Amino acid sequence: MASISPIYQAIGSIGESQFELQSKSIPGLTLRIPTSETIGDVVDILANKANSELDRSISDATTEELQSIARHWTTVDSPLSHVNFLVRQGDKPLGIAGLGWIGPANDEDEKQSERAGAAGVMIQPFARGKGYAYEALRMVFAYGLRELGLTEVWVGTHSKNVPMRKLMENKFGLLPEVSTDGLDKFGNDLQWTLKKDWLQPNV
Asked: Could you tell me what percentage of the chain is helix, strand and coil, using 3-state DSSP and rounding each to the nearest 5?
């Protein structure tokens, strides 16, 4: 069974071995849930300091801790608590993207039906400047809001992360909320929020 949107085609359903999102803008660009065979690719991406230096959750992690994170990403639980993808061009790993957290949209009401997700993207230095980060993140936004029924998708980063700021502000045309409480536990002080209305002109 395939689900089609104007920007991606979903092959199969999440939890199935053949499940992947195929870009309709960049031929060969796919998002796939990591498997036991691709854990090493995920670890290589997470371990690259050029990718992780501003991410407190992984910047000081050991190889064993990164392997544990990668193994966790191979799982699909119910209800979904995360959906992490390996970004590939053909068979070549380019980076990671996805929703690292899915949960209640309101922290004060864990039983509510409305759910939100925290999205991100990380592209290896050799693959930057080619539109992969924008396309992968656009696919994640659309999948989360359209297929998973999330009411909001959040993106957080550190204000020194210039590439992410340019991606969100210049490519997506969104302005961030600036934290007045300093950095959060992931080292972020900026946050962008996408709601269901983002789907209207985009997907």
From this structure: 30, 30, 40
